[in-house]
Amino acid sequence: MVDLDRLKSRTRADYPYILEYRTRWADNDMYQHMNNSIYNFLYDSVINTYLIEHCGLRPASSAQYGMVVHSHNDYFASISFPAIAELALRVNKLGKSSVTYEIALFEKGDDKVRSVGEFIQVWVDRETARPNAATGMNSEVRRGLERIMVDNGRASKL
Questions:
Q1: pLDDT value of residue 158
Q2: pLDDT at 128
Q3: Can you give the pTM of this predicted structure?
Q4: Which of 23, 21, 31, 3 is nearest to 92 (CA)?
Q5: Which string of DSSP letters, residue by residue, matches 15-78?
Q6: Helix H or strand E segment including 101
Q7: Contact 28/80 with Cβ under 8 angstroms?
C-alpha cells in the first residue's frame, strides 16, 4: 500500500537529479491545469534524459533499452501554464535487469510537491525484447542508476 502522507512530505532534497520543464499552453486541459497524460510524458522524459546524460544510453543504437512495465501517479495539487515544473528523479530499487524510479513534480518557487509517480523498467536486449538472464542490465547503465539510488530513504546529490 502506498503511504500518501510520506509521498506528500517529499522535498527536492529527497531527489538527486532535477530537470526543469517550461509548461506549454497545450499542456493545460479544459479545467486550466496540466492534463494527467502530460505527467506521464514528463516522467518518461526525465528518466530518459537522465539515462542519456548519465548512463550512456543511445536510444537509436544501444544494445539494451528500458521497457516500462508499470507506472502510476499520485496527484496532490495542480500545476498549469505558464509555470515551470521541476521534475525530481531517484531510484528506489535496482534489480539485475529492473529498476524502480520515483519521480516528483514541483512547481518552481513552491516547496509543495504536486505529484509523485513511479515507473518500473525492465532492461531488455534490443534484438529479443527480453531481459538478458546471464548479464542483466548493461554495467554502464547500472553505474549511472546507482548514483541516484536512495540510501536509507535519502539520496546524495549528483
A1: 57
A2: 92
A3: 0.92
A4: 3
A5: -SEEEEEE--GGGB-TTSSB-HHHHHHHHHHHHHHHHHHHS---TTT-SEEEEEEEEEEEE-S-
A6: strand 98-107
A7: yes
Alpha carbon 55 to its chain's center:
14
Residues of the chain with pLDDT under 50: none
Domain spanning 4-146, CATH architecture: Roll (3.10)
Per-domain residue ranges of the chain? 4-146
Looking at the DSSP assignment, which residues form a beta bridge with residue 68? 121
pLDDT given at position 157? 54
β-bridge partners, 93 = 100
To which H or E segment does residue 79 belong? none
C-alpha cell at 58: 543511445
